[in-house]
Amino acid sequence: MRCNQNTVIEDSIVNLVPYRKEHVLQYNQWMSDPFLQETTESEPLSLDEEYDMQRSWSEDEDKCTFIILDCSLPDTPGTGQHGGRMAGDVNLFFNDPDERATAEIEVMVAEEQSRRKGISKRALQLFMAYAHTQLGVTLFRAKILESNSPSISLFSSLGYIEAKRVAVFKEVYMEYKVDTKEAIALQETAKAMVFKQYDQE
What residues does the N-acetyltransferase domain cover (predicted)? Predict the structure, then answer.
């Protein structure tokens, strides 16, 4: 998404940076893992296809993505100095062009060293605050495989509730509606976030 092409969100646990070409090699390696393909319901791409995907995402106004950096680990070699090891990503999809206040959200922590450290939850908290205050999202929807109990628990812990189940895809749809109380909480999170420009080295 053009609006976050140069945006960095800094935090003590994670940093969120835009998905840039220097991240593609590591990302492509992650997505060759059959486990991640299954849990994210993704198809493997060639490296050239991944570069094409990265370029299209940076321009697509219906998708917003950040790479998650784990602040407790040193920077991933070849990606510059941006405050942590590449750990995964968070994404928004605006699937209905006439309903920009509703977005599908997802998170992936691909690095084994970065799991079970609260990184997914913190990344989602920051991303939701950004999406609500900067993009106007008031309804978040997560589509999760029924077998992915850790992800269901994660979104439940953030206040998402089950909206429906789609048997044919074996998915659970969970939703988070931003009413007054939730809006205040997201705005407070946004106030504490540090925004910087992404400097490619």
Answer: 14-179
